[in-house]
């Protein structure tokens, strides 16, 4: 084995796919012993509990060149590790399942079987587990994926966990839907609905800037009149639309309010 640095520490990086797989399985299984936060399967110290998994993940990005010389070899390694994360979704220990989702969400495949597992977890009474499952399920933002879009609309409209609703909101307002007027109208309706939670309204408004354009600045800046939504508007205009007109819109609002 060879040493692969992670920060100031060293990971004894394996020289084969089998070695990486064995190491990852061992690290995932070890999370079953981590102390949990009260009322959830999530570890009390997430970074500490998943430290070894993150080290293995980082080492797999740049494995030893003498044993993984080309793109095909590296892809085979990542595919093998992805299968380990997927298999861990069936683990009898829920903290291991949480850890696989938290550390390996980007390595999960988009097969029907994996999606079914993730969607089942959305209904978990554990909001931490449900949120991680939602994050993984909505992570691939692809235009034309009607099944995922409908799921996002459903959970945003009515789900028992607010943070799952927020994942649906972010999918609906993701960049792949830029210019989609139906999405803009839907998110605007959530932003205007004062019966909605502050978090959902703020998410909806912030995503307007991602899918909207300079022509929508006047519609977005109207939400500035509500203090709870001002940060969301600044995000929408400053990080979403990102034009001089957008910047000037919220700067002018604050200048008018200045004493």
Model description:
By secondary structure, the protein is mainly α. It has helices spanning 17-30, 46-49, 51-61, 71-88, 94-104, 112-121, 127-137, 146-157, 162-172, 181-192, 198-211, 217-221, 230-241, 244-257; strands at 2-6, 9-13. It has a two-stranded antiparallel ribbon with strand order 1-2. Strand 1 and strand 2 form a beta hairpin. Helix 6 packs antiparallel against helix 7 (127-137).
Task: For this entry, give a set of tags.
mainly alpha, two-stranded antiparallel sheet, disordered N terminus, elongated, 259 residues
| Uncertain stretches of 5 or more adjacent residues | 1-9
Work out the strand percent: under 5%
Strand order of the largest sheet: 1-2
Number of helices: 14
| Percentage of residues assigned to helices | 55-70%
Number of strands: 2
Distance between the termini: 66 Å
Which overall shape is indicated by the principal axes computed on the Cα atoms? elongated
Brief rundown of the structure:
Helix content is 61%, strand content 4%. With 259 residues, it is mainly α.
Write the layout of secondary structure elements.
Blueprint: E1 2-6, E2 9-13, H1 17-30, H2 46-49, H3 51-61, H4 71-88, H5 94-104, H6 112-121, H7 127-137, H8 146-157, H9 162-172, H10 181-192, H11 198-211, H12 217-221, H13 230-241, H14 244-257
Antiparallel strand pairs: 1-2
Helix pairs in contact: 1-3, 1-4, 4-5, 5-7, 6-7, 7-9, 8-9, 9-11, 10-11, 11-13, 13-14
